[in-house]
TrEMBL record:
The gene is rlmN. It comes from the Bacteria. It comes from Lipingzhangella rawalii. The lineage of its organism: Bacteria, Bacillati, Actinomycetota, Actinomycetes, Streptosporangiales. The keyword S-adenosyl-L-methionine applies. This is Probable dual-specificity RNA methyltransferase RlmN. [4Fe-4S] cluster binds at residues 126, 130, 133.
Amino acid sequence: MPAELTFAEPRRAKPPRHLADLGPQELAAAVTELGEKSFRGKQLAQHYYGSLESDTTRMTDLPTASRERLGDELLPPLLTPVRHVTCDDGQTRKTLWRAFDNVMFESVLMRYPDRNTLCVSSQAGCGMNCPFCATGQAGLTRNLSTAEIVDQVVSVARDLANGEVEGGPGRLSNIVFMGMGEPLANYQRLLRAVRRLTDPVPGGLGMSQRSVTVSTVGLVPAIERLTAEDMRVRLAVSLHAPDDELRDELVPVNTRWKVNEVLDAAWRYAETTGRRVSIEYALIRDINDQAWRADTLGRLLRGRLAHVNLIPLNPTPGSKWTASRPEDERTFLRTLEGHGVPVTIRDTRGQEIDGACGQLAASQQGQPTGS
């Protein structure tokens, strides 16, 4: 990646190699190196992506003598669920994962009548330092590997398919990269993960790119790079302020790429892909929820291929940042509507279960969760 997209990451041991790290040709080469015929890679991938199976002892089409070695080398255990916590009558389930090096991160499954959405993490921690975000205040521990990202999805999809989540058996319909971390700061692994999620079985899970949303705080060179990838994922920009003075405080990366630069890159993405951009805006009481800021935002967005998600802030314990008053929330929404900007207030899930990104991991590790 270009130098301007390099963010400091502590040097750590690498996760074990996993088939989700590998494309089809790489996987065929890997099994050949293990003394197996190359088509064994396709068989492994068919089980993992097609049947959501990770246990090679159950893969009866593989030679008995090869199953353990192939499992050890290409399907090693990556993630251990430390805790599942639920709310919303079981329709929201947050999972705290422990990786091979005891690093922890989270994913959140949200079930709705018409869809099942999984919010996944792309990093353990985050280096963007947004002061109202639990993950941002914890700092960056490390990037997740491609397989660690994908295995969150496969593991939850397996639980859904097996009826192990409240509401009965189901299947994942949407993936949002809005968990821990800045996805575009882990660009190469993110991109490979999206391809693993959306390539047809056995090359991947076979989900539609249109069902995948990638969020960013506004890393302009990475947005431009994503624009050139010829993909159709939805881009979500975590804006949180329409003016540079406040956004410099709320989203520190704004000191490098200003509001207009970020939005210009987003509009180029929308024009190239034909996909509407989501503008994420966490409403924070007396900070960014004034009517004049809604008017400023409306003027920036009107006539653009964009939709605003207003997010009632899910406050972190001990933080000075809190959710807007309902009347200010309504005024903000009406002001945007007055500019003809499509806008909704996001259905806030998980407030009872350390719902904001990073809270569960921080509480498990005994770290502070807010400023």
